[in-house]
Design goal:
Elements lengths: L5 E6 L5 H16 L4 E6 L11 H9 L16 H4 L2 E4 L2 H10 L7 E4 L20 H23 L1
Parallel strand pairs: 1-2, 1-3, 3-4
Helix pairs in contact: 1-2, 1-5, 2-5
Length: 155
C-alpha cells in the first residue's frame, strides 16, 4: 500500500532554512504532479508562532511563493509517525531530531543534502546572521534538493 509522501523540513528556529525548503518542495511537487503533505519545524522553540524571517519571505516571493502565513513550530513526537521523511538542514539539528525520536520511527530521518548525489553529509548553511545574499544561496541549495526529492518520489 502506498502512503502519500509526507515531508518535514527541520532547522533550528523554523524561520529561515526550513520554510524555504518547504516552499521549494511544494513548488517542485506541484510541477511534478506529486501529491505530498509538506511542512517545516524547528528543533528549538525560539520562534514558535512567528512568521518566517522577512528575508526568507522576500526570497520565496521572488520564486512566486508566498510564505508570509507560515508559522514557526517546534518538532513534536507525533511528527515521527505523521511524516514519511524528516530532513534536517544541518548535523546539529539532525542529532537533536535523533535525540528526541521515539525508539520506533516510521520516518526516514536524514540530512536534506543527502538526497543529492555527491552532497551527502553536506549542510545547508544558516543565512540568519548574514545579508540577503545568503538567503538566495539557501534557496538555490534547497531548491536543488527539492527537485531531486520530487523526482525520487514520483519515479
Amino acid at each position: 500500500m502506498h502512503h502519500k509522501p509526507a515531508i518535514l523540513f527541520v532547522c533550528l528556529g523554523n524561520i529561515c532554512r526550513s520554510p524555504l525548503a518547504e516552499a521549494a518542495f511544494r513548488l517542485e511537487a506541484e510541477k511534478a504532479g506529486l501529491d505530498a503533505h509538506t511542512d517545516s519545524a524547528g528543533t528549538a522553540a525560539y520562534h514558535v508562532g512567528s512568521p518566517p524571517d522577512p528575508r526568507s519571505i522576500r526570497e520565496a516571493a521572488k520564486h512566486g511563493i508566498d510564505i508570509s502565513a507560515y508559522q514557526a513550530r517546534q518538532i513534536e513526537q507525533e511528527d515521527f509517525t505523521r511524516f514519511t521523511h524528516i530532513f534536517a538542514m544541518d548535523r546539529s539539528n539532525l542529532s537533536n531530531i535523533r535525540a528526541i525520536a521515539p525508539e520506533v520511527v516510521a520516518a526516514r530521518i536524514a540530512l536534506l543534502m543527502d538526497v543529492l548525489d555527491g552532497s551527502g553529509g553536506k549542510e545547508v548553511e544558516d543565512p540568519y546572521y548574514g545579508g540577503d545574499h545568503g538567503f538566495a544561496v539557501t534557496w538555490e541549495v534547497v531548491a536543488m534538493a527539492a527537485r531531486q526529492l520530487a523526482k525520487e518520489l514520483t519515479s
